[in-house]
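Margin note from the TA: students keep mixing up input and output lines. Inputs are the sequences; the output is the structure of the whole complex. Example:
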Amino acid sequence: MAYNFHFDPVDLPPECKELRKEVRSFLRQEIASGGFNPNSGKGTFSKEFARKVGAKGWIGMTWPKQYGGHERTHLERYVVIEEMLAHRAPNRSYATADRQSGPMILKYGQEEIRKTILPKIASGDLCFCIGLSEPNSGSDVFAASTRATKTDGGWLVNGRKIWTSNAHNADYMIALLRTSAKTKENHRHGLTQFLIDCKSKGITIRPIINLTGQHDFNEIFFDDVFVPDVNMIGEVDNAWKQASDELAYERSGPDRWLETFASLEALVQRAGPSPSDSLAEGIGREVAHLATLRRMSASVAGMLQAGKTPGVEAAVVKDLGTNWEQALPNKVRLMAPPTGDSDPDVNDDRFEQALRHTTLIAPKLTIQGGTREVLRGIIARGLGLR
Ligand SMILES: Cc1cc2nc3c(=O)[nH]c(=O)nc-3n(C[C@H](O)[C@H](O)[C@H](O)COP(=O)(O)OP(=O)(O)OC[C@H]3O[C@@H](n4cnc5c(N)ncnc54)[C@H](O)[C@@H]3O)c2cc1C
């Protein structure tokens, strides 16, 4: 049996420790000055915050300086992301562009687009959304049927995307579009990626309200939307390889195991300094899981830094991470001391709020960025089992 993946052990170097202190101090100041409230459970979109983070040099950290980047390491970027998530900072307006759209443009975009778009992402001025899913192509992204047809100086786009997170706030989308039919030999053939200005004529964005009652998802209709040639990303008809890269970027970070962390943090606060033995044991077990996921996720960042493409390792972290974080709110609920038994200084409302919010978002965690079953298929292939 082929064994095709492993996790290189990684220790964060001293510059990461310094950076962590700097990021924590910035975030604590932001919270203290009312810049954001980590316990609001409300939307986390703020362009103002994005611009502050951009000014700190914490967006596009690993990109070349000539495109507005900062030529820092993937491990330094890892530390910044981890702190932002642990503090529940309002990173929605730049996180997608920083994590996957920017790296895609850097790797496959045309020079003119790199020069104009990447510096604006790095400064926190641009928000991106992801145009992969369609009503009949979710897990099988390569079945996309929204068409781009060649016209003078560009392409005309017609069709529909769905489940597009944050599209109503986005400036741009990177969309996977059908430019010709798939072939007998390669069912992934015939797709091309494009950078689309979300304010283009012919685009209609309709909200889909999610389980928490918030407007995050959208469906997007394209009606003869003109996209200039310069906005084509990569090769015509051959986007399947680059779209797979994009999904690897999407899956590899701490974003995939820190979404319900607030419930564990709230439990630790509620437990106070002298929890019962059984509660201490329960918290200890979850913290041990968390520590292991951190080591694995940092290892993925280390492999990216070494120029590797750890697609299977990223899928393993996402699968283990999302399963752990999905189960966490319910475990926290079962472990929590009854109201009245907790530390008297603890705010029970905050605990309830954290638990309510994380319980409601838990179901989505094993779907977004690739479902559990699909990830396990990728892992099985990595192990040589299919
Ligand atoms: C919170 C959230 C945010 C999202 N944001 C975006 C976004 O910004 N942009 C975007 O393009 N999409 C987005 N999506 C969509 C997401 O990528 C898709 O929902 C996901 O890929 C699954 O596709 P589907 O919903 O069509 O389900 P389907 O593909 O129809 O799957 C249904 C079920 O069948 C299983 N299944 C499917 N194929 C296989 C297989 N080969 N083997 C075994 N089981 C299989 C799946 O695991 C699942 O359980 C988001 C989804 C969520 C939940």
